[in-house]
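From the shared-data thread, chain only:
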Amino acid sequence: MDMFHLSSSVGADADVTNKTRLHMAIPAALRVPRADYDRFAAPMARPDAAPLRTFEVAALRADSTRSIATFKAPALPLFESAFSAFARGALISAPGGAIAVEDLQPGDWLDTSSGKPAQVLWIGSSNFIPADTGRRMPLIRIMADSFGQNRPGSFVTVGPAARLLQTPAHLRGSTGGAAMLTPAGEFVDNVNVIEVVPPTPIRLFHICLSRHAAVDVGGIQMETFHPGMGATRQVTHAQRDLFLSMFPHIAHITDFGPLAHPRAPEAELEELA
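Structure, as tokens:
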């Protein structure tokens, strides 16, 4: 990916190493009781706050100029799901031939399941350590022919946010034959679809197109990014605003538009698990 000149950094740690501390006696009447001090100081320490992760974004602005930006944001599902669908090396079908996800540029065009190509507006990426002992997050490897001949043609490795345009077996009777977008992890059987946990950092990607779609990744249809209309309900207003600021073409959560295909009901998937 080319390095464009515009960059920004959000949430960088402030340097307080050179500040000096003043030692002075505090009159008894102004001293804060220890219990009150602990009550107010504890939220500032925030020992349970999510750690920060660095996210990189390359995007196409409304005026067709390109930008690249770096953000620091909490390692929460809302943020991580936008950056962890495709592993480096995943080949995505395009009108001019397959292209690796790491070689995509904002403005490129990709084939979609509708039969009409769509333009890449946004590419997000970040480094993840699948075998991190503090937070294990395995990748998913789909072996050749797992979903039929040449589906995929060779193994494909995806991240935890990947969804396949494939209906789970237990829901096929209720969909009327329509394919559903289903988390790749739901198909893990330890034979055709397996978990892999490399100990070293892995670069993962996700993409937004000019409309929500499913794209051909190595022979299987997979979802482009869409957070879902209720995605920001469980975060603070500041976190919501930071999340939306990562998408230059988005002003409101509804600007992601409608889903191209229905998603497998999460409640039913949780019950099955």
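Helices lie at 34-45, 77-80, 237-245, 266-272.
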